[in-house]
């Protein structure tokens, strides 16, 4: 059974990412599962650090993007929105080229917070980063 409020589509997500940082870094959502999102990001000059490997900040940006998008798909956006409270990441191995693939999976859905785990794999399928984000569920201000 799907956890999403409504029926989010890959096209809908990618349209929202296009004109801000995720779009600039080449991030794309490629799958909306019943309780997870899968996205990709190229490893290229925009996302590498000076040593020629994937920048840890780019990995964290990918993790936060997927976690934030997923969190907001779980709530009724006319009543609530979700914002990041805390994120952590363990960078396990370097990635030099190709495309990394990340999967955001729900850990906890509460009334006032959510926790998502994001696992990022290199082009060979090896885990290169694991991240966890805590999202605050905030009521939309009434006017």
From TrEMBL:
Keyword hit for Phosphoprotein: no
Domain Thioesterase: 51-128
Keyword field: Hydrolase
Name of the molecule in the record: Hotdog fold thioesterase
Entries under Pfam families matching the protein: 4HBT
Entry's family note: Belongs to the thioesterase PaaI family.
UniProt xrefs under Gene3D superfamilies: Hotdog Thioesterase
């Amino acid at each position: 059974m799907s956890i999403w409020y409504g029926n989010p589509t890959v096209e809908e997500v990618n349209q929202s990412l296009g004109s801000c940082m995720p779009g600039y870094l080449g991030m794309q959502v490629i799958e909306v599962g019943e309780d997870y999102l899968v996205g990709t990001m190229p490893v290229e000059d925009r996302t590498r650090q000076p040593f020629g490997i994937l920048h840890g900040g780019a990995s964290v940006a990918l993790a936060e993007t997927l976690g934030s998008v997923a969190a907001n798909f779980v709530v009724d956006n006319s009543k609530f929105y979700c914002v990041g409270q805390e994120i952590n990441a363990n960078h396990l191995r370097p990635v030099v080229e190709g495309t990394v693939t990340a999967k955001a999976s729900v850990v906890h859905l509460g009334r006032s917070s959510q926790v998502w785990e994001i696992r990022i794999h290199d082009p060979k399928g090896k885990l290169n980063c694991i991240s966890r984000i805590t999202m605050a569920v905030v009521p939309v201000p009434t006017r």
